[in-house]
Amino acid sequence: MNIQTLLKQGAIWAFIVAELIFFTIAGDFLSTSDKSFMDFDNMLLLLKQSAPIGIIALGMTIIMINGNIDLSVGATFALAAVVMLDSMTWPFMVALGDWSIPLAWTFALLTGVVLGAINGLLVWKTGVDAFIVTLGSMLGYRGLVFMYNGENPTSKLNWTLVDFAEAQFLSLHTATWFLLAVTLVLWLVTTKTVHGRNAYAIGNNREAAVNAGIKVGPHFLWNFILIGFLAALSAVVFYSESGSVNPNDGMLYELWAITAVVLGGTKLSGGYGSIISTLGGVIAIQLLRKGLGHIGAGTETVNLVIGLILIAVLFLDRQLNRKGKEELKI
Amino acid sequence: MKIRTILLATVATATMTVAGSAYAETMRIGITQNNVGVDSYQTTYEKAFIAAAEANPDVEVVVLDAGGDVARQIAQMEDMIQQEVDAIIIWPTNGEAVIPAVRKASQAGIPVVVTNSNIAEAGFEFVATFSGPDNITQGSRSAEIMCERFTALGIQDEARVVQISGQPGYTTAIERQKGFDDRLPEVCPNVTLVETQPGDWNREKSQQVMEAFLVKYDDIDGVYAGDDNMGVGALNAANAAGRTDGITFVGATNFAVGYEAMERGEYWGSIYQSPVDDAKAALKSAIDLLNGVELPFLNYFDTPKITQDNMGDFTKPVF
After folding, report:
1. Between chains, do B70 and A242 touch, taking CB under 8 Å as contact?
2. Cβ–Cβ gap A166/B100 under 8 Å
3. Torsion sign over Cα B254, B259, B265, B266
4. Same topology for domains B2-133+275-302 and B135-272, yes or no?
5. Which of B8, B75, B82 sits opposite A41 (nearest CB)?
6. DSSP structural state of residue B275
7. Do B64 and A293 count as a contact with CB atoms less than 8 A apart?
8. How much is the ipTM here?
9. Contact residues on chain A for B93, CB-CB shorter than 8 A
10. What residues in A contact B174, CB-CB < 8 Å?
11. Inter-chain touch A238–B71, beta carbons under 8 Å
C-alpha cells in the first residue's frame, strides 16, 4: 500500500477523529448535558443509528465502483417495510403467532431482491444508463408504496419483534450486528473474490472489461439484486424496531447513501472505492447529526455542514489526484 | 498538539463540573419536533417554544427537529435518553412508529409529553400527558358557530348544510367530524346535514368537492370544512358559481387565507388555534410534570371561536 492510498483511505477516519475531538470539547462548553459526548453508550448508539443508511450505503459502494448508481433504494426500503408489516396482519400469518416474524422478514427481503432484479434486468437488457433506469423505478416503486395503503401509515406493532430489535448482545445493538456483518461480507466480496475484482475492472474501463471476457450484464444484475436485498434488509432491521411505516419514509435515503459513499472516497466515475471507507462515511454523517444536536446547534445546520464538507472532500480529492490539471480556464 | 487538546478537554470538563453543580436545580427538557420547515404553523411553534423556554430561568431546552424522518426522530429520542434529560416532549412524525422509542424513555424514568397530535393508543401507557388541541370540541364549537349564525339569520328551522372533512384515517379529521356531527343536532335540531365528503386537507380537492355539491343541491345554506384551507377552497367554488351570498362558511384552524376571507365578509367563522399557545402549553405541561403537579392524561389548551363579529380580538394567523 503506497502513501497515496493510505492518505485516501485514512482521510475519512482522520475526519471522524477530528469530529470526536471537536464535539467532545465543544460539548463540554455548549451542551446542557453533564455527560461527555464520547460516552461509551453514546458511541454504541452512534453505530446503531448509522445502520439504516449504512447498510444501504455499503451496497451502493459496489454499484458505484461499477460506475453505476441506484436512486431507487429509498423507495425499495419503504416498499419492503410495507410488505413486512402488512404481511404480519394477513390471517394465516396471524395464526402462526410469533413464527410469522421470520416469514415476514423473508417476504420483505424477497421484495427487495425482486425490485433490484427489475432494475438490473433493465440496465442489462436495455443498455439505458442506470441513473435513468433507477430514476424511473424510484418514482415507480414509490407509486407502489402509495397504492398499497394511500397516504396512511402501515403499522403492526409486535413487542417480540421490538424486543429483538432493541436487544444488545455483547453490548452491541441488533442493528449494529447487522451493519457489521454486512460490512464484513461486502469487504470480503470486494477484496477477495473474482466478482469483486470484476467490479473494479468494469468501473475502470468497461470496454476493456468486455474485451477481457467479463460478462458485464449479468454482473450488473447481481449487483442490483444485492443492493435491492440490502435496502430491504435495512428496512427489516429498522422497522422491526419501529413497527410503522409512513408512505414517504426512506425519501432522500438514496442521496444520504451516495453522500456517505462519496465521503468515503469512492469515485462517482467508478473503478475506485472501499467498503471500509464507506462505513467511515456513514459514521461521519451520523456523528455530525448527533454532535450538532449535542452542542445545541439547530438541526438545519447539519445539512449545510455536510454539504460544505462534501464539496471540500471532492475538491481535496481532485487536488491530491490530479494536482489541479483540470482546473477550469474561464 | 495532542497534549494541548487533552489539557483543554480536561480544563473544559473541570469548568463544566463546577458550573454544573451551580445549576443543579435547572430542569433540562428536550423536544423532538415533526418537521419544522414544512409549514409556518410548525415554524412559529418552534420560535414560540424557544422564546418561552428562554423566558424561564429554571429551564434549559434541547430543541431538535426530525425533519419528517421517523428514523431521525427515534435517534433523537435515544440521544435525549442517553443525555439524561429530565423530560422529553415529542411531536410524533408517525403516531405508531415512535411508540417503542417512547417506551424506552418511560423505562428510563423520563416523563414524555406528546404535543400537538397524539400517538396511537398502544403507546398511551408510556406517555405522561398529551398537550394539544381538543379536536372534538373544535368540531362541536364549529357546529355552535354555524347554528348561532343560522339563528341570527332566522333560518335555523330550514337550513341545509354540507360538510367537507379532512383526510380519511387522520385522527384530527375523524374527531372534528364527530364533534360537528354530534353537536349540530343538539343545538339546531331542524338543520339538515345533507352530505359529507372528504377534501383531504387540500384546497383544490375541496373546491372540486364543493363544485359537485353546488351542481347537486340548489339550496345550500352552510358549509363546514375541517380546516380553513379546505373552507377557502369551497368558498372559491361558490364564488365561481356566483352563489356565495346566503351561504355561511365555517372552518377550523384559522389560516391567514380564512382570516382574510372573513375580513372581506365572505367567510363567517372558524376556530382559532395558535401555534404559540400550542408550544407554551407543551412546555408548561413538561414543567408541571417535573414540579409534581398532577395533570390529566389529555391536557388540552383552549382553542376559541372566531367569527366576523369578534375577529378584532385576534391577530391574523401567520400561516
Report:
1. yes
2. yes
3. negative
4. yes
5. B82
6. H
7. yes
8. 0.81
9. 246
10. none
11. yes
Nearby residues of A311 by Cβ (< 8 Å), 6 or more positions away: none
Q: Give the list of residues 6+ apart from residue B108 with CB closer than 8 angstroms, or none.
A: B81
pTM (2 decimals)? 0.79
Grid coordinates of A326: 483540470
> Minimal Cα–Cα distance from A17 to chain B, Å?
12
Rounded Cα gap, residues B178 and B184, in angstroms: 10
Q: Pairing relation of β-strands A154-155 and A244-245?
A: antiparallel
CA-to-CA distance for B289 and B109, rounded, in angstroms?
13
Strand positions, DSSP E, chain A: 154-155, 168-169, 172-173, 244-245
Q: Which residue of B has its CA nearest to A246?
A: B94
Assigned C-alpha cell, B254 = 384559522
Interface test with A, best of B16, B25, B63, B167 (most A CBs within 10 A): B16
d(CA A279, CA A294): 22
Query: What residues of chain A lie within 8 A of the CB of B7, using their CB?
Result: none
Q: Quick one: B2-133+275-302 is in which CATH superfamily?
A: Response regulator (3.40.50.2300)
Residues of A in contact with B94 (CB under 8 A): 153, 242, 244-246
Phi, psi of B172 (to 5 degrees): -55, -45
Interface probe for B, chosen from A242, A252, A294, A300 (most Cβ of B below 10 Å), is A242
CATH topology assigned to domain B135-272? Rossmann fold (3.40.50)
Which residue shows C-alpha cell 398529551?
B130
All residues at 6 or more sequence positions from B118 whose CB lies less than 8 Å from its CB, including other chains: B92, B95, B130, B132, B171
Residues of B whose CB is below 8 A from A150: 169
Parse chain B into domains and list their residue ranges: 2-133+275-302, 135-272
> Whole-angstrom Cα distance, residue B74 to residue A301?
19
Question: pLDDT 10s per residue in chain A (330 long)?
Answer: 566 667 677 888 888 998 899 988 888 887 777 777 888 888 999 999 999 999 999 999 999 999 999 999 999 999 999 999 999 998 888 888 888 999 999 999 999 999 999 999 999 999 899 999 999 999 999 999 989 877 778 888 888 888 888 888 898 999 999 999 999 999 999 999 999 999 999 999 999 999 999 999 999 999 999 999 999 999 999 999 988 898 888 988 999 999 999 988 888 888 889 999 999 999 999 998 888 888 877 667 777 888 888 888 778 777 766 554 555 555
